[in-house]
TrEMBL record:
It comes from the Bacteria. This is (S)-3-amino-2-methylpropionate transaminase. Keywords: Aminotransferase, Pyridoxal phosphate, Transferase. Its EC number is 2.6.1.19, 2.6.1.22. One of its GO terms (molecular function) is 4-aminobutyrate:2-oxoglutarate transaminase activity. PANTHER family: AMINOTRANSFERASE CLASS III (PTHR11986), LEUCINE_METHIONINE RACEMASE (PTHR11986:SF58). Belongs to the class-III pyridoxal-phosphate-dependent aminotransferase family.
Amino acid sequence: MKKHRAYVSVTAPFPGPKARALLEKRKQYVPLGIGNTTPIFVQQAGGAQVTDVDGNVFLDFAGAIGTLNVGHCPPEVVDAVQKQASQYIHTSFHVAMYEPYVRLAEKLAEITPGDYPKKTILLNSGAEAVENAVKIARKFTGKPGIVSFTRGFHGRTLLGMSLTSKVRPYKYRMGPFAPATYKAMYPYPLHRPEGMTEDQYAAFCVAQFEDFLLTEAAPEELAAVIMEPVQGEGGFIVPPVSFVKGIYEVCRRNQILFICDEIQTGFGRTGTMFASSYFGIEPDLITMSKSLAAGIPLSAVTGRSAIMDAPAPGEIGGTYGGSPIGCAAALAVIEKIEREQLCDRALAIGSRIIDCFTALQERVPVIAEVRGLGAMCGVEFIDPSSKKPMKEFTAKVIQASYEAGVILLSAGIYGNVVRFLAPLVITDEQLQEGLDILSEIVLQLYSKEHLSK
């Protein structure tokens, strides 16, 4: 673990003295409920690297929970933000309009799936995008019901929690939740019944959904279905293409709007600008945020013009929604993704991650599955004898990784999935160094776990 590294440098002890002092202040002034994956405080960041206040240098494989597809502080985005800030910072689009909002709405209409007229509302966060997509769907259809899926995550607001499927830490003792929200079953290919092909499993799951419309929620009362095309917090679960298409077609037949939550999957992460394209669907509404503006708070709902026009003036929006600085950043982000072909880069990154851990799987049988779409990859750890999720082992991997200089996150309702959200601008050399470190850690921890039994 003490090998010379070109891109990682972590000095002992860890965390360092400056971080420890700040941790004491954090404990005094910041609520316990705001969780932290690592005990570091950032001093500077660029590309796929983060330097903390004690001079430790890390490779960032978490990307601020998927908000940094174009990396930390990309110069083009920094320049766009500085230029915009020197002109005007905020006027509120509701009071005095500005061109960046309209230009971004035009660009999102161009790059989102579907060759038909579209309009966009800009907001501040992913949860706000979800809330407003639901409001718009209800207004357009005149129906109240919203269906989400098991293991789905859609935010921490009241409605976001209501649509989210993980109780702890997001919903525990925070109810009652919003009415007229329902949860249908989402496939988990790792748990596919023995003897079923992927297509048979997908057909089975679609049939379950059709039964759900008979037993739980009538189509005549449903405004929309909201789905993550690849589940994020739920465990980086990639469903069969025919499942997503099947649900989409059921919605079409029953006059139910289809909302695609692309907050984590959007902007090149899965190898296409939006994962919807991979699954061959054209959602009625798409929610976006995270990597839209390289870390500046900004979100969007883009959808068919007739649907988006359902609310009357003043019924949707917000004081800070679509800030000029956020819009300027987003336009620079999209230009960078297109110019540097970062969708293709996502495919290359994902392939190397999958290859690395698939090879490691032969030596580490607690790796139950290595999966992903593009550079949205997950590694699930399960005890092969008891078949129980290995949450504690996964936590040890996360801790040992940041102590060795690689920042990672976990996922899954059992917390037993390591997820990869490295910036798409990471170099091959940086990626390989990070994967080498992680491989060593997993091997060492497995050896200890194996010997202790």
